[in-house]
């Protein structure tokens, strides 16, 4: 059962204690090439050495060995070549894991060895993490997950019960999640209580019938990444300027989360989203701006104020000429302003 995000602080410590009690061993990986200088995380390996059970090395060019190891342990830990260290689960080794990190996502090179996973006796994960892919989870039943979430504030697991939006938001708010994905609820609007997701840093919404964005969305002061997929969108409100920590904004119109037979997107000329508000220039931390399939026909000059912007992607819009001021934005690494193909950049 996957986690929406990895537990941190006290919740992380409680989860480590739980995993120590329910697992035979835990695994950490060293996945850097042999010719790369090892980082200071080697002190962590030294501290854990008294609990080392065994070490296995997976060669990148030996697929038979790789397949055999994956089949033997049935764990998320073994997905690439590297050196893997198996440690005995006990109170002392668990205490070290709690001292060395504050959350599962801390287990990443170069600070620490990578991808802390707990293996059950006989194989299979009890708890797993693949930090580069933001994948975290526990092998528990729905009933066990509900009991654990009641007991450990900050442990936020994906439940079947979350098909009910109110239950999803109740749990997201209770566990102070920093990431949430909302899709498949048949929404025509987002509830204003979305403003109560006070710790949210990443929010993805895939609901084809969402047309307006509520003011509560723009009260999420810690939000860094916002992605919205919908069939049509009325506008980007001027209130977007309030998201001062936003680094990535992605909007995709003509999107359907439940297409019916014969479904067709509106012609882009009929998409309501036809402008980018000048207030976009107030998003000083913005690094990526992606807005796809719209009737936008011009860009606001205020984009020049975005000194951290690296990616500007306006595919399938109605702009017929790349504005001259974009050439002065030397920090841009990628520019796509196109009417037809997502990959055809219009030249001036």
From TrEMBL:
Superkingdom to which the source organism belongs: Bacteria
Species this chain originates from: Paenibacillus phytorum
Keywords noted in UniProt: Leucine-rich repeat, Repeat
Gene3D superfamilies found in the cross-reference section: Ribonuclease Inhibitor (3.80.10.10)
Signal peptide: none
Name of protein: Leucine-rich repeat domain-containing protein
């Amino acid at each position: 059962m996957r986690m929406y995000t990895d537990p941190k602080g006290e919740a992380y410590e409680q989860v480590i204690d739980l995993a120590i009690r329910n697992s035979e061993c835990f695994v950490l990986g060293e996945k850097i090439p042999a010719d790369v200088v090892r980082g200071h995380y080697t002190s962590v390996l030294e501290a854990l050495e008294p609990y080392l059970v065994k070490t296995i090395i997976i060669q990148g060019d030996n697929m038979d060995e790789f397949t055999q190891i994956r089949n033997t342990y049935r764990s998320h830990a073994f997905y690439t070549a590297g050196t893997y260290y198996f440690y005995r689960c006990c109170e002392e080794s668990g205490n070290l894991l709690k001292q060395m990190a504050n959350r599962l996502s801390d287990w990443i090179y170069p600070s620490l060895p990578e991808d802390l996973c707990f293996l059950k006796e006989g194989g299979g994960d009890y708890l797993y993490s693949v930090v580069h892919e933001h994948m975290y989870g526990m092998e528990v039943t729905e009933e066990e997950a509900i009991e654990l979430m009641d007991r450990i504030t900050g442990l936020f697991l994906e439940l079947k019960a979350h098909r009910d939006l109110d239950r999803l938001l109740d749990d997201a708010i209770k566990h102070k999640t920093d990431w949430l994905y909302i899709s498949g609820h048949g929404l025509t609007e987002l509830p204003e209580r979305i403003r109560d997701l006070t710790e949210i840093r990443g929010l993805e919404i895939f609901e084809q019938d969402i047309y307006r964005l509520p003011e509560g969305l723009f009260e999420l002061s810690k939000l860094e990444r916002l992605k919205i997929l919908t069939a049509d969108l009325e506008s980007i409100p001027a209130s977007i300027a309030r998201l001062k920590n936003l680094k990535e904004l992605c909007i995709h119109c003509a999107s359907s989360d439940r297409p019916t037979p014969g479904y067709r997107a509106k012609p882009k000329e009929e998409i309501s989203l036809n402008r980018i508000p000048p207030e976009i220039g107030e998003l000083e931390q913005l690094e990526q701006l992606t807005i796809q399939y719209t009737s936008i026909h011009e860009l606001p000059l205020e984009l020049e104020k975005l000194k951290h912007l690296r990616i500007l992607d306006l595919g399938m819009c109605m702009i017929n000429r790349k504005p001259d001021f974009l050439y002065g934005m030397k920090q841009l690494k990628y520019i796509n302003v196109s009417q037809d193909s997502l990959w055809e950049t219009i030249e001036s």
